[in-house]
Amino acid sequence: MTNNNIYIQSSLAEFVVPREALGIDGSCGVEMQEITEKVQFNLRCDMSMLARSSNHAEPFFGSIAELSSNRFSVHADYECYWLGPDERLLVARRDKSNLITQACSRLHLLHHALTDLSDAQTIIQLSGEEAQTILMHGSMFDFHQQSFTTEMCAQTLLAGVPTLISCHTDTKLGLLFYRLYIRRSYADYLSLWLIDAASEVGFRIVLNES
Amino acid sequence: MTQMLRTPDAGHVKRTRPISFTFNKRQYWGFEGDTLASALIANNVRVIRRSFKFHRPRGIVGAWSEEPNAIVEIGANNTRVPNLRATQIELYQGLVAHSVTPSKWLRFDTLAISNVFSGLLPAGFYYKTFMWPKSFWHRYEKRIRRLAGLGYAPSGQDIDTYDKMHYFCDVLVVGGGPSGLIAALTVARSGGRVLLVDDQSEIGGSLLSKTETISGKLAKYWLKDVITELRSYPDVRLLKRATATGYYDHNFVVINERLTDHLEHHNERLRRERLWRVRAKEVILATGAIERPIVFCSNDIPGVMLASAIRIYLLRYGVLAGSKVAFFTNNDSVYHTALSLVESGGEVVGIVDIRKNPKSTIVERARSTGIPIYDDHVVVAARGGFNGLKKVQLARANSQGDLILTNKGELKCDTLGVSGGWNPVVHLHAQSGGRPEYDQSAGMFVPGKSVQSERSVGAAKGHIALRECFVDGVEAGKSAALGADLKLGQIPDIPFTIAESSEALKPMWEVPPSQLNLHNDKSFVDLQNDTTASDLRLAVREGYTAIEHVKRYTALGFGTDQGKLGNINGAGIVAKYLGVDISELGTTRFRPNYTPVTFGAISGRSIGGYLFDPVRKSPIHEWHVMAGAAFENVGQWKRPWYYPRDSETMDDSVKRECLAVRGGVGALDASTLGKIEIRGPDASTLLNRLYTNSWSKLPVGRCRYGLMLGEDGMVMDDGVTARIGDNHYLMTTTTGGAGPVLTWMERWLQTEWPDLKVYLTSVTDQWAVVSLAGPDSRRLMANLYPDLDFSEEVFPFMSVVSASYVGVPSRIFRISFSGELGYEINVPANYGYSLWSTIMKFGESLNITPYGTETMHILRAEKGYIIVGQDTDGSVTPHDLGMDWIVSKNKDFIGKRSLFREDMKRDNRKQFVGLETDDPLLILPEGAQLTNEQNRSIPVDMVGHVTSSYMSVELNRSIALALVKGGIKRHGGKVYAHLIDGRIVPATIRSPNFYDPKNKRQEA
Fold first, then answer.
1. Chain A within 8 Å of B553 (Cβ-Cβ)?
2. Which of B269, B613, B842 sits opposite A199 (nearest CB)?
3. φ, ψ for residue A203 (rounded to 5)?
4. Dist CA B290 CA B567 (whole Å)
């Protein structure tokens, strides 16, 4: 028997919906895209101990340990999201996966848990002028820029789905956009919800190139 | 297109845009900007419906949400919306409206006979009359409802969609009148996030019907300038057609925005309503005031209206309320309206003023215009017929206003504008926790002490004069801005308004019934519920002393208008009859919602279909869909229930699937089971404390079944946990238990055992799980993983190995929930779909069969394996389940202390057993109650109930699991199941393990 037919399938690969629908005024208020090329790791450890492990040779640990609550930091090869006092989400491109696992393997003297969640969570990127409004329809969190702006993240419910929402800036356009980290089992439901919420303002789904 | 009562040029309606509409099947014309009520008045339609109890003809009284009479329905079938107020319906082309009334024809209502016998229908009539026999109430109720004509619900599914919005702001301003606008401006200039909501189609409140100038400009130009400035601030949002319906703790205010009701065409992409859930640091209540009527005989005749409504219809909609208008008042405000009417060409036949010789500026102006003023007079009764008011009867009362002294003749008119003063809209203030207080000098209930960060301003505070409203608004804006930690910006100047002298109001709730036999009819307090002053008198006579009780006895304030016109008069009248001051009696409690809110708005988009509730799907879900699986909901998960082929019934499918597993190999998608990674040097210690059995000696690579108890010693979850490494376990939980179990574990770790070095991470979604079961599963596994040895010696029951499948990391467990040889393959979820597809191809030669949760349930029931939550109910211990073997006596664990209390070892506790019915083809219903005796009259002691019940294909008979008192020692004994159809079915108690009791198959 051949085994070559094993392949990766993201949570939204089979998602069948209209790819675009303009809003009532003919505009496209929101663009949605599944971000598939990332690996995600959950790191749990005593961050004060981790900070002590940090030195010039290991700035990686410092960037993780010193993150303020409800913030995330963006680095050349990875992003780090604050999930709790002793919990972080590390996100990197697939080809940089080893960077995280190898760095954490050097923490053998520190009690920690690094768990691969790359397949457990789906990332949906939401951009466009009405992206914030769409979020306001489904979450009782304050998304106003005074309260929630770039490099901030929050764990909340969006349409009843536990979601980590992060706010980013498109440096080229200077516009804010959002990333939603959700459990993959909710991906189908939340995508349908987002499309429904965006039907008034118009939406476009940006496909990943395979 | 004749609109006989339309003025030539007054109002804001767009006369260039005529609109045709239908009321009670007759076509009329109005203009864009009209409400249904203003257009009906313009067309001289006087009667809108028959009343609720006495079926009396009723006309329009108010101009907005206070309207008690003009109740109509619009639309038909599934777009029908009943019980709307004509005063709040914006006119659009093609609008079709009907009276909400019990009779087919308004003019001929045979049930109006009830008016003749009204003496037999006092307050409490329904409660007193329809009590015998008690069981007949439901029959009475249907008829009573039909007679009342309360409207009909839509007949089909709502075609509209609804939405929600969560919003945060520094300051929420409720009400877009003069005080609300200037308050919002004050905050906006201070850089605050402001949300201003107004429930009408135009922002402006009372300014929309004012003739005064503000800082030298007409009110409408001042209004335009302010709105333009407010819109220029990026953090200011103005919402119109938005009603603040509820004010809750922590300055949480719910606002219902109506988005499409005013539009002619349905657009499926537009939401009909949007419910705003607003959290504000500070709230300003600029909700205005509603004019209070005065109660007198026959005050319900069409044509008797609020004086303020006459003013609004004239100045906002350009409509004369009647051709001969009289006023009845105890204050100055109607004089403005009377003068405006005269200026617009209307005829004012007189102003009846309770006060003796009022001398304020406006009164003098009216007097000089030649309007007859009947000071020191009252209207004691209205007279007219179906076509409306014809005249009013005048009289003189004594100085206290409680005795009619002299008949003063009649005044011919077709419209009477009544003003008994003003009731500030204190509803939201009261909902926020405040208690309205009675202001004796102003004769009104005003907001009391604020409980939350809110303040009332303008008319809502009892300040009716325009200048007072502006002063209030600015002050409230400043205090709210400071309360929201803003730095004050440029404070708006108080606009200049012309000050006029005024004379105080003389309170009067009810014109006393005449001893001069002038008239003998009812005086209505609550027009919507036909509650009369004599009903209130009766309630007091019968011993009711609290206004809340009087309300419930007489239905005062029960209608869709929530007594906006009647409640305060009702309180005043009751206070008078009780001989107490109204301030002592107080008001009824103001509760949400201020105006009715549709269920659609409350539900939002979670109203049905795929958005009803979040749905979770396994990585293999689409395969199951393509295979035609039927699904069942397990928590939020969709799980394949069974896979029907061709024309198979569910029973056929399940039989086929059971036989396939017992005789060959079946595949189950087990991805939904909860999975928790447990890592750290104290992982074994944690498991020892959580589970009843011991984990310290479990070797790496082996699995163990565990029972988790609550602190009460009752079973709360179960599952298999595998030791992946020395300090690394993977725990599985039930599908529904994944979240609660993780929370439970974290709670103990964080609050009681922070010293334990253990970290938990949920990996439920990380792994796709394919469960293979059946005697051929080993062969299939060997084909899939040719490099692994699946022999019993190398890979025994309850083992786990890590393996790689064409480079895909996988964990393989040898466990079983079916009683058959079984394996569970875990792969990262993104490989789940293709792995499953590959397995199904590999297994074709072995006739592999996908099976669903129904088959899984039968297979496990044949083995007597419990499902927590189905065979247990939170009151079942391991002893009750016959699982003493899993309870360690040598270590401590959560629930141990409770578990070993004396009562937990009682012999007659309900215990887990199997049941076999005497008739092998009869399947007991789950939940069936069990007794020890077959023929005993009710009441009979229940000794247990059926928890699981199926037809077992393998055993060729029905089987059941049950909890039976003392059941473990009663194997071989009889119980009797009581079916809902009355049958009593005998069954024999036995061990719950029906199949392969020595577990040879799963351990093969």
1. no
2. B269
3. -145, 160
4. 12
Residue entry with tokens 């506790």:
B909
Partner B, chain A 35-94, Cβ-Cβ below 8 Å: 42, 44-45, 86
Rg (CA), chain B: 38
Show Cβ contacts of residue B113 under 8 Å, excluding neighbours closer than 6 positions: none
Rounded to 5°, angle at Cα B731 from A123 and B793: 120
Could you give the CA distance from residue B329 to residue B342 in angstroms, rounded to a whole number?
A: 18
Question: CA separation (Å) from B363 to B329, B358, B697, B811?
Answer: 12, 7, 98, 92
In this predicted model, what pLDDT tens digit does every residue of B929-949 receive, in sequence order?
A: 999 998 777 788 999 999 999
The residue out of A77, A94, A116 marking a domain boundary is A116
Give contacts of B767 with chain A, Cβ < 8 Å: 119
When CB atoms are compared, the residue of A14, A160, A183 closest to B622 is: A14
Among B148, B472, B419, residue whose Cα is nearest residue B288 = B472
With tokens 């009334």, the residue in question is: B101
Number of domains in chain A: 2
Distances in Å between the alpha carbon of B452 and those of B277, B427, B449?
Answer: 17, 14, 9
Give B77: exposed, middle or buried? Use CB within 10 Å, 0-12, 13-18, 19+: exposed
Residue ranges and CATH numbers for the domains of chain B are: 1-156 (3.10.20.440), 162-289+424-483 (3.50.50.60), 293-420+504-521 (3.50.50.60), 522-584 (1.10.10.1100), 673-840 (3.30.1360.120), 906-1004 (2.40.30.110)
Average pLDDT, chain B: 93
A26-82 per-position pLDDT tens digit: 889 999 999 998 999 999 999 999 988 776 567 888 889 999 999 999 999 999 999
- Which residue does chain A place closest to B623, by CA atoms? A14
Closest residue in B to A202 (Cα–Cα): B269
Q: For residue B905, name the pLDDT band (cuts at 50, 70, 90).
A: confident
What are the distances in angstroms from CA B278 to CA B166, B254, B477, B887?
A: 6, 6, 18, 52
Torsion-angle region of B505 (φ positive above 0: left; ψ -120 to 50: alpha; else: beta): beta
- Partners of A159 on chain B (C-beta within 8 Å) are 611, 614
The CATH number that applies at residue A166 is 3.30.1360.120
